[in-house]
Design brief:
The chain has 267 residues and is of the alpha/beta class. The chain has helices at 2-15, 23-27, 38-41, 51-59, 65-76, 117-124, 146-154, 169-175, 230-254, 257-264, and strands spanning 87-88, 94-105, 130-135, 159-166, 179-184, 193-198, 202-204, 207-209, 214-218, 221-225. Among the domains are: 2-39, no CATH class; 80-224, Ribonuclease E inhibitor RraA/RraA-like (Glucose Oxidase, domain 1).
Amino acid sequence: MLARALAAAMVATLLVPATASSPANALFGAGGQASVPADAAAQVAPPGMTPEQIIVELRRPENSTGNIADGVEAATGVRGWMSADMKPISDKKIVGRAWTAVLRPVLKQDDRQYPNYALQILDEAPAGSVLVYVLEGNVEIAGMGNLMATTAQVRGLEGTVIDGAVRDVRELRAIGHQVFARRISPATSVGRLVSVAKQTPVRCAEVMVNPGDYIVGDLDGVVAVPHAAAEKVIALLKDYDARETKMMDIIKRERSMLKALEIYNRY
């Protein structure tokens, strides 16, 4: 009798539909298929700020890449500034979230078909994004020219950062799409490089960049702000600006930076 009751209870449990909070649904979706937790799949902003709010703060004129680089190092303990040869083609500041792709050298006799991840992210990245292209093996090969820049511009992308070269610079300036690159070169990537990955963590100009990180570029260079540390970096930037504003008044009055440092200790 007891065994029969236990068996009936087990059958009843199995027949109960899985709910959003049930143990079964924690691993399987409502349709019975394995699901990935939303927080593992989505790129989320730090608590308290939306990505749009973070971008507005990082775009403020007082938040130079110099101060942002200081903030990233203070918040994370590692550098966020890319190699000093990462230069812009114009003076436009860019701020946006990273979409990444990696290209590698290919042998001329290699006739395999590779997905064109570089062009895929060009078409898939939402407006306001910053493309991050890593061209492995040779920084003198151009990762973008006039056709890609035109596509980026009409799609509303914020800019492009290339661990490699850029070409068609005069046309790119006329198009209006901002590019940061380590070289300017006429050499095409066609026939020399193939796409091997997209939307993966990359090492760009000596700095790790994850998809969804915030990329800031101005005349001084490019800084990557890890999305998990963005809110802490912004808090530091507000502190830096408050101190520097007050220090500037003292410097102008006393004509001495040392006297300003004695009070505000910015450095």
